[in-house]
# Entry
Amino acid sequence: MREAWRQRLALAVLLTLGMLGWELCLLELLSGGFGVPASALAPRLARDAMLLFPLWLVALWSTRPEKPRDAAALSLCFLLLLLPVAAGRALVQRSQARPSSSEAAEGQAVSATTRTLEDEGRFLCATVNADVSAVSPEPANDSLVATAWTGMRDALLLQVPVLPLTLLLLRRRSRPAASEARAATPALGPLIFLGLLCGWSSDGGPPAPRVSSPLEREAACRPGAPVRTYSVAAISVDLPLNAHGDHQPQGLMYVLEERLPAVREQERRPWPERTAPGLHGEPIQPLVLRANLGECLLLHFTNRLATGPAALRIEGLPATVRGRGPEGGFVPGTAVPPGQGLTYVLSLPESAEAEGTYLLHDSEEGGAREARGLFGALVLEPAGAVYSDASTGEPLRHGAGWEALIDVPTGEHFRELVLLYHALGPPEAADVRTASGAPLPVLDEMAGPFRTGAFGVNYRSEPRFDREELLPEEHEQRPASRRGLATPALRSYLGEPVRLRIAHAGSAEFHVHHLHGGNERRGGGEPPRLLSPGRGQTLRLGKPGDFPRAPGSFLVHCHVPNHFTGGEWLEWHVFSARQPGLAPLPSPR
# Structure
């Protein structure tokens, strides 16, 4: 009898460790690059061990498994024990939630993610949501049933490896396995002890004292780092593509909260006035944010869609996520339901090599929402950079926009231009319509069928099927068009340094950026640049011998034939004399 219980104790230890390992695998696979500090990970693993280990003992005592055929009964028994524990834990934590009285002021170096509800009441709980403290811009209004279901859903995910683990361990119920378990027990002991201490402070015991320093409260930020804050919303919008009235009626976009009224005002304009040539200063454009190397960036994200989830993912930069989980979900970066949000805390790298463009997008549901416009970019500028409006030279109030002047205190000033190439999806999915509401035609050329207008740059598209009179012969300088293009008009002065940031957004089709320089045979342009999904590149232009070598208007387009015909082309205007509405770079120091 004693030997049987010793073996069951060994099984409970191994099964508990196996489930903790499963949680770590989920964290690695699903967290999307949002790191969890070890100081937060260890106590949360201990809390889970403290709950899982007794449940395994009860399940083993109830089923008394001896052979592999008993694995199914053991797994079912454990699940029946786990579900009510997970639901009850979530309900207890919900009842203990207390709203916070402090809020962070926009743009100030204080914490913008004060805690209102700890997610430590979660299974998977604790690990994958280690840094997701519930901080919703909207008050929580989940029902008791929804809260209980949140916990049970986590429990179901924890159940995934149970049957394979029990089969494996029951098949190997031998003395070596038991000895291995006894060797593992001392390692589990400190975790359980630490979990008991944490349970006192987080599960009904006295609350932990508040941290006085806001930046210390944001553990992801370096002490003393400048803090830059943006409040971003996901909204639905009728995306205008060009002056002909082509549009995407079911479009989506990210927008700064303070710019939302301007977006709605542009959306109400009549079709001929809904777009302006060159996309200079229009509210409806992809969100391009800026921050400097070494800063602490707070991104408050809110889903303001009327229906359906929305997400914000930052490609290539680790972040800590704080906020209410997605409908009780547990994976940082996943979608949140309407009215709820998350706050992303990014400690931006200090290395100059990290300068560049990072995609913001909603990659969930196969990228369906991204293809409809839910994408943008975060540009990391040199340390200490100051941003100015490219048209007026005044300080760039929002720090956002696809064109800007960048004043670098200890380096070279430059003009910045950001282009996001994107596709709206295959012809059967791309909902692109004329002003009258009719779908734009589908063409079938050498690269296969495509819908005209389904390829664009910065939410604008100039499909060639009905605008041939605007197009010049390839490889020639473009004459002034009788109608201005709605696609972004790149502008610069001859001889000034330019950093052209190009990135791939939208659906997963590849794009090939190509800049014609007026005389291709003499090397007047730039070689084509392949853009892969989610990636950005920076082209440094304007130096002697580089493009542009002379003033003029030059063709920029996607080198994929269907994309070019479908709307992905624009102009770059290079001037030798001062132009109204185009500020020069500050004088070199």
